[in-house]
Write a structure and sequence with these properties.
The protein has 232 residues and is mainly beta. It is built from four helices and eleven strands; from the N terminus they run αβαββββααββββββ. Helix content is 15%, strand content 56%.
């Protein structure tokens, strides 16, 4: 529905502005933000095991990408990474890391050379790794050196998951007077097309593995620069 709506807006704008000047620009973007995602089934399965720390429900994120505009039509590509740590890094803790890539289409609803406000829709893919560390501070150093059994007993436990995603977003940006840079804010929601089971660290299927979906909200500050402006 969002794609149909945006397509209608774009076609209408194109029909009304055939005789107007066409403006095109592309800028590279960097972002920093926070993402909120709770993997309930995985955390529930971990909870009975006191040697492991539950995962946090938020992650700090960094992103790189590009935004291309043609008149008011907006398209973008982005790669984002995020991570969180729960507990004591040197003892019992858990970590979640993810990497995502996505393509988005949108429309700038404010026809201004100074301000952008653009809703977007898109698709992408995201991969996650959950790592659980036990407290091994009581294990003797020499035992680790000499015993393969002890070496195996202190290793972390890792699980992977990958999701095909759909994305909805809303961006706001202030443009520099020269048109070669922006600073703004982006809000977004990312969901998975289906629920997926967690796999081993080697991406092998496990019997009765936890089943989770992706329902991630994110907010970030976006800096744009190094762009090109063209007019026709």
């Amino acid at each position: 529905m969002m794609l149909v709506l945006l397509s209608g807006i774009c076609l209408s704008a194109t029909a009304q502005e055939k005789k107007k000047e066409r403006k095109s620009s592309m800028i590279m973007t960097k972002s920093i933000g926070v993402s909120f995602q709770r993997f309930g089934d995985l955390n529930q399965r971990i909870a009975p095991y006191s040697q492991y720390k539950p995962l946090k429900d938020y992650m700090w994120t960094l992103g790189l990408g590009s935004i291309h505009t043609m008149n008011n039509f907006v398209s973008g590509f982005s790669v984002t990474g995020g991570s969180s740590l729960s507990g004591d890094r040197d003892k019992k803790s858990s970590a979640m890391r993810f990497l995502s890539a996505g393509l988005d289409l949108g429309y700038d609803v404010i026809p201004s050379d100074k301000v952008m406000l653009y809703p977007t829709v898109g698709v992408g893919v995201e991969t996650y790794r959950a790592t659980f560390y036990k407290d091994v501070s009581a294990v003797d150093f020499d035992d680790v050196l000499t015993s393969p059994t002890v070496q195996n007993s202190i290793r972390s436990v890792k699980f992977n998951n990958t999701f095909a995603t759909y994305r909805f977003g809303l961006g706001f940006a202030l443009k520099s007077p020269k048109g070669d840079g922006t600073i703004g804010l982006q809000l977004g929601y990312t969901g998975s097309f289906k629920d997926n089971r967690w796999k081993s660290s080697d991406n092998q299927t496990l019997a009765d593995a936890p089943l989770d979906n992706l329902s991630r909200f994110n907010v970030g500050i976006v800096f744009g620069g190094g762009g090109m402006m063209m007019r026709k």
